[in-house]
Amino acid sequence: MNFNDWFIYDETSPTGIRWKVDRWGGEDYRCRRVSAGDVAGSLSKKGYWQVILLKRGYRVHRVIWQMKNGEIPASLHIDHVNRKKSDNRISNLRLVLNEVNKRNSGMYSNNKSGVTGVRQITMGGRQYWCATWANLPPEKKGAAYFSTAKFGFYEAFQMACERRLLEISKLQKLGAGYSETHGL
What we know:
Layout: E1 7-9, E2 17-19, E3 23-25, E4 31-34, E5 42-43, E6 49-53, E7 56-59, H1 60-69, E8 76-80, E9 93-97, H2 98-103, E10 118-123, E11 126-134, E12 141-147, H3 148-151, H4 153-173
């Protein structure tokens, strides 16, 4: 599909694209539904801009990438660098492997520590602060545990935060693809 036939990339549009052509509808297709230049797309429940074209839905960030760079290989994903799903500026989009896309995910909604990748857990009746990170392939998770009984609540938390930053820094030197918004 050549999206350039249907859309114009425009950073002033909330979605990032505008219709290039008039769209007609109704029983006899004499009713103009949208005019060329109108904003194209609507916001989905998941926070992504989406557009319907020829009875098929497309995520706008993928449309924009293809308009500017061509087809997206099946093994790759489009990542929003600043983690804002609705920010479809081409400068905010990058083509990455799924593992890298996951490394740029936000803090989980159930995170109570306030630090991405650091959480408090209980094992064997004891409290720990746990730092986690995603190693490079074979994509095994890394983790380090710091006992609140041994180090104290605050010290264990600080140690977990420092360990996560250390591991991510090491991974970044190897090209892991963590973004600055992911706890760096």
